[in-house]
Design a protein that fits this description.
Blueprint (H helix, E strand, L loop, with lengths): L23 H20 L5 E6 L7 H16 L3 E6 L1 H4 L9 H15 L6 E5 L4 H5 L1 H5 L4 H6 L1 H9 L7 H15 L5 E4 L4 H18 L13 E4 L27 H9 L17 H14 L3 H8 L3 H16 L1 H11 L2 H29 L5
Parallel strand pairs: 1-2, 2-3, 4-5
Helix pairs in contact: 4-15, 9-10, 11-14, 12-13, 12-14
């Protein structure tokens, strides 16, 4: 798509972003590029600003930990500037009420801190406290078309799932809001799963179009960077029944559970009748999932663990996993409990993060106003 300059307001609608072309070749390119960047992080941490976030719709679980939280802490500890968003406005994309939003925000915050996110080095903040971030939605919305948004795979899936019911305008435009999340702080690296790649492509398109359409505040550089994905490549962790983790299915081990609750969850985990333990993700997904988790906790290869258990069977595997999990998260849970008992401190951390995010957002919005010649 060529976006026309301001004397011709029409936008052509055919395949503007390549969002439809998420074929295996582009995925392979993204994976290769992401590996390069990952290696470069340790060498040039100062080149990157990372933004990540979670929707505060529930408590964090071990899938969040191994899938993303541990990596954020790793990036932070390498010296990468890291922004962590509690995406509270995103909660209302697909539900009618905010639920117990305050409790959820603080619960996730406690897990961030317990996992090692350091509020003096990383900025933890919420959407709703940063007006200038949200204001970016306005110019950004002018840079996308409704058909483009409807083609976004996540939006499209939601649209199909609504089954004739109305979809909210926020759901339709939430990829644009995510672009504002990323661009308000000029993040150039976004750790995501493969499903989020189209959103990032949309974000890059918005950054480019902003430059083409509105210009620059500073002649030698665009206002917004081209953000790249940092793909999480670890095996997807499933629930204790071997299916996708979901709180309503009761198959989730939350970070905040006690050792006893963890033991109970693993006791009822689904395995299979074959006594001899082998690591076979395709043929024996439930057993493989338990082995993967044990491997993550012990920092060992699941194949080696399977060999070690051998004829010990599912009972031995469960015992090993229970001990490994409870050992791995003992310090996290102790720290978490201390934090939850000190709401004043949590409040202070979030207030400081929000203040810092506002400073950053105000500077960016100022630059946007200058680029758009809206300084009066
Ligand atoms: N959509 C993400 C999730 O559900 C959370 C999120 C909000 C996010 N804004 C973001 C992730 C910007 C990356 C970049 O987990």
């Amino acid at each position: 798509m060529t976006l026309q300059s301001s004397d011709d307001e029409t936008m052509t609608l055919e395949d503007p972003t390549g969002l439809d072309q998420h074929n295996s070749a582009s995925l392979e390119r993204a994976v290769a590029r992401s590996r390069q960047v990952d290696a470069d992080l340790a060498v040039n941490p100062g080149k990157y600003r990372v933004l990540t976030g979670d929707r505060p719709t529930g408590n964090l679980h071990i899938g969040h930990y191994f899938g993303s939280l541990a990596n954020r802490v790793r990036a932070q500890n390498l010296g990468v500037s890291t922004m962590v968003l509690l995406a509270d406005y995103q909660v209302i994309t697909d539900r009618d009420s905010v639920g117990e939003i305050e409790q959820r925000v603080y619960s996730i915050l406690a897990d961030y801190l317990a996992a090692g996110v350091d509020p003096t080095r990383s900025t933890i903040f919420t959407h709703s406290a940063v007006p200038a971030l949200n204001q970016l939605m306005l110019p950004f919305l002018s840079l996308v078309t409704d058909s483009e948004l409807r083609r976004n795979p996540t939006v499209k899936a939601e649209l199909e799932a609504t089954d004739g019911r109305a979809m909210s305008g926020l759901m339709l435009t939430y990829p644009v809001h995510q672009a504002a999340d990323i661009l308000f702080c000029k993040a150039n690296l976004v750790p995501v799963g493969k499903d989020q790649l189209p959103h990032l492509e949309q974000c890059r398109v918005i950054a480019r179009r902003f430059d083409e359409r509105f210009g620059r505040a500073n002649p030698d550089q665009p206002v917004f960077p081209q953000a790249e994905p940092l793909l999480s490549e670890g095996a997807m962790i499933l629930g204790t029944d071997g299916t996708k983790m979901s709180k309503s299915k009761g198959n989730v081990i939350e970070l905040g559970m006690t050792a006893d609750q963890t033991a109970k969850m693993i006791k009822k985990a689904v395995t299979d009748p074959e006594r001899h333990i082998t690591f076979d993700p395709v043929g024996r997904p439930e057993v493989a999932n338990l082995l993967t988790l044990t491997g993550l906790c012990l920092d060992e290869d699941p194949v080696v663990i399977a060999d070690r258990i051998g004829d010990g069977g599912a009972g031995a595997l469960k015992k090993m996993l229970t001990e490994a999990l409870n050992e791995r998260f003992r310090a996290h849970r102790e720290r978490r409990a201390e934090l939850v008992a000190d709401p004043g401190y949590l409040h202070q951390v979030l207030a400081q993060g929000n203040e810092r995010a506002n400073q950053i957002a105000d500077v960016t919005l100022d630059e946007v106003r200058r680029a758009m010649r809206m300084v009066y």
